[in-house]
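protien #1 (seq + structre)
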Amino acid sequence: MLKTKTKAQAKTNLNYTNKNGYEKISPQELKKIEEICGLYMKFLGSAKTEREAHDEAIKLLEEKGFGNIERFETQKLKLKPGDRIYKSCSGKTLMAVIIGKRPLEEGMHIVGAHIDAPRIDVKQNPLYENGDLALLDTHYYGGIKKYQWVTIPLALHGVFVKPGGEKIKVTVGENPEDPVFCITDLLPHLAQDQMKKALSEGIEGENLDVVAGSVPAADRKIKEKIKQNVLKILNGKYRITEEDFLSAELEFVPSLKPREVGFDKSMITGYGQDDRACAYSALKVLIDLAGTPEYTACALLADKEEIGSVGATGMASNFFENTAAEILNLSVDSYNELKLKRALNNSWMISADVNSLFDPLYPSVSEKKNTAIINHGVCLTKYTGQRGKAGASDANAEFIAQIRRIFDKNKVVWQTGELGKVDQGGGGTIAYLMARYGMQVVDCGVGLLSMHSPMELAGKLDIYMAYKGYLAFLKDARK
């Protein structure tokens, strides 16, 4: 005999469904989505390099009362709950913190993202002349499809640093009156051999040189007149010589501005959304966090993720650990290494990085049940890695349950996703580098279409839900 369901059982939904987020939100949240995404687009358009993202982040932090930790160190001041501080590393990596009510030894809540993006870097000895053109020799940075970067308008961003320490910032190609730059490509009529090659081989790395000028200098005695004229222009505007390229960091990025996409304006296209969609969300939630959190709240913006998180400004360095040690030292009467290890081990972290989205034009690379879909919410990724989860940080089920609790309690629209089919490819984030401390870490970020291209595509709702989810996470009291 069949038993009649109780009211509690009747209300239980036995099936999991992944719905479009716009079907779940209120009209009030529609306004909030537009507000957050409008601010995000301004940030995205003004922060096209890791240096610029770092500087813009500090500007926003200081406007909201955050101060450099160096003031506490030099004045020998103690940190107390509610204090808002930040620490910079070489102008490219940043850690910002609000001291919580609980002792640091009980752990932090960290949202960590990266602010570097694939691009075209200028080599150390780059300027040359050929075919009555001045060109800049380049070396691409990160995983790009090289053919996507030819013929598009490019802007030059970066710094020259003189031996005496003077730093000269350069930005050319962003203002309407600026010139832009480009990389040439063969016309179809002459590209028969090129078009027979694999896409990865059609444009070679050494052929990504950027056109920089074509007018010769007036001096007839000079052999490379066009190169000389470019140097004359650079010297007149920036007081640099050719030798100053040796101590410069110059990057070519798309000169295009972020734009809304679709008749409904529900999406954003722009350069560097991997990972500035998550980085801005992490920064914004820390700025917006009212009062004093239960646990110390941290936003971590790192460099060099796209090339393995290496170097002094990457997450493989000791910057995070050293900064945590400094904060602990300024928070307690007697510092010791055991307290630091406990603080790191007891921390919770969201590795805020992007994931791929299901692309209906390329369905074969995805397993749809386990692939994120645009505007279905922020994407929770239990594990990354390649094929057999190689190189992955695989979050514990217990921690995933805690994130579910936080998101569901705060009505965050979220979904899960993997980076393509099992044997298709894969990728990684900074999560594994933080998990080595024993802290609980999970990847959670905005899904993108056309990832690593000059102009990536994201859903507005997903960006807002990343903001909403990170805010709930930093505020959570683990109860």
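ok now protien #2
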Amino acid sequence: MATMALVACSPSPPVDGVSSASSPPPADLATFYTQVLTWSPCEDAECATLSVPVDYARPEDGSIDLAVVRRPAAGAAQGTLVVNPGGPGASGTAYARAADRVLGMPVVNAFDVVGFDPRGVGGSAPVRCASPGDLDELIDADATPDTPDEIDEIRRVSALIDCVAPVEGLLDNLSTADSARDLDVLRAALGQSRLDYLGVSYGTHLGATYAALFPDRVGHFVLDGPLPSGLDAEQVTLGQALGFENSLRRFLEDCRRVGDCPLGDDADTSVGLDRLRELLEALDARPAPTADPDRPLTEGAATYAILLSLYRVSDRPLLRDALASLVAGDGTPLQRLLDERIGRGPDGVYRDNAMDAFYAITCSDRAVATDVPAQVERLASAAPILGEYLGWGNLPCEAAGIVAARTTPPPAGASGPAPPMLVIATTHDPATPYTWVETFLAEIGSGVLLVRDGDGHTGYREGSDCIDEAVDAFLLDGVLPAPGTTCV
């Protein structure tokens, strides 16, 4: 079945016990705000740990250490840039280590690049929500239940998500607002009066939350692939279902142009979509054999693999070949494609806790759906290809019983306006669809929009020199593109 919407969040109840953004930190947080990071060599970078309170409303109750990585500037450093790759659940330390690939060389030359694993992620008090076997079972489960017994089975599998944390109280303090407060402690520990930041996908939500909480500490902010905080769970799921369906159609158009497409070369993409639906329905009835006889390819796993292959245009040839093999009766390539994208090794072990953290943080950030089957019915009507699949993916939050966080940032401008932030939106982005950009801009109140007219998730370092040059110019010199700028 689906592993929930691939990025998701919604507002939480009002904040309590936290000072306003523009005031100095409370005295009981002084220990955290005055710490100095101790850097030590680690592989090709420098590593440190940052101490933050488990609960900002009760900092005396305990702390956790967050893993931090710094890639020193390749040239003369002019500042520090903090980066976040999204998820939620993706490792910021791994992202900083990949600075040469994810950032332009002018930025790598001029900035110390810093990434941190958010609380609950990677090296920062990692949470666990399921065993590797349980995650496999969740991914493989029937994505489109047709009977009451099959719905009962989805509920059983969803209930395998049962999160635990290594530190008492952490599960109650895993919201994006908590991580944004961690980000401000990191800013202070780095000796920066203002934070320069690049966040992609869910990282835009983290950055926007920081800007709402600490507008007077915002430096050069680049938010790529905007995810609004004000959408409820059903709105997020619907937006993504429509976004991925659009990307599927565009994949089929490209597949037809290349020729000999495994789903047919008909100019009407609805024909290819019908063939794909038939292929998936066949897997529902009988999973396809793979190189591992104990792990055939199910409808749920195949659908998830297809979705993840739509994030990058560069994955289209791989998806095309994998679908050709599936049409021929072999599910191995699509299964391997899925495993590579979710970090599952041949031994069945996942390389990190990204999927666990995704559930824990997402469920903390939003209210639990009260009637998932009714929501699924509405989603299936609006998005007939993927609405049902993604809708059932919201069920684990209901099963996990994680209480939505009690903390949320104030509205944009509540503590004063933040400086202009550069927002990048891609017209055919499946995961953070372009239809969300107006909502996001209204939420942050001070965004300058840069549009990438193209396919795939996010815009920076995705093949557009126009986008890359604009981002580099803003980070290096604070020069924003003209309003209404569109790049290809």
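The longest helix spans residues 233-258.
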